[in-house]
Amino acid sequence: MGSTRNLRKVLPALLALIAGTAGCRIDMHIQPYYRPMAKSDFFADDRSARMPVEGTVARGNLREDAYFYTGKIGNNPGDFLPFPVTAEVLDRGRERFNIYCTPCHGRVGDGNGFIPTRGFRRPPSFHIDRLRKAPIGYFYDVDTNGFGVMPDYASQIAPRDRWCIAAYIRALQLSQNATSSDVPAGQKIPSPPPQFRDIGNGATLPEIAPPTTETKEEPK
Ligand code: HEC
Predict the structure, then answer these.
(1) Which pLDDT score is estimated for 60?
(2) 183-210 b/e with 16+ CB inside 10 Å = b?
């Protein structure tokens, strides 16, 4: 009968264990709470949902670096990127530019996007003197706040990506206004493919057929 004796010995401990794990733990399971937007009798304004304390900043939204978020120093656009320009930054800028800006501004930023051929105002070319001289923070500001009929892209494009786009626009401006003297010594300039046209200063732009209103006959 050795096993019964053993059982008698461990039984008190076993019972204590069961009582300890299962007993009397409903205190945290049932507690008072408000359903979302429910009325409260406790607060004077009857709202159960409280406003955040004044000056509350959502996590990740402490916009300490004003230049990074506005592109401006005081009221004027600054002329530098708030982080180093690398090949990765320009690649990212090209990708985002091609997604968000080319429908109107065209791949090279000459304003020959598709949307203007359907009646939207044609944007100015980025290669006009005024915009070539514009500080880089200006492009960031236009993306962030919009300009004239152009909507802003603040909610679609994250701040860092807006800077990448601004950097890429500057690169486009340099590329579209480059001359043979900008080519490093000893490097050959390949002749442009036939679908590109010479715009006279050594740079080339893709040929885009002017919009036509005539209805063409379908080829048979
Ligand atoms: C839906 C078409 C459209 C898209 C997309 C668009 N733009 Fe524009 N953009 C315009 C038009 C139109 C203007 C001219 C607005 C005006 O004069 O009222 C303009 C003007 C500008 C200007 C020149 C402002 C000036 O001083 O003349 C900049 C810079 C610019 N856009 C940058 C961008 C960038 C960067 C993107 C992509 C993030 C972008 N745009 C996307 C239509 C667009």
Answers:
(1) 82
(2) eeeeeeeeeeeeeeeeeeeebbbeebee
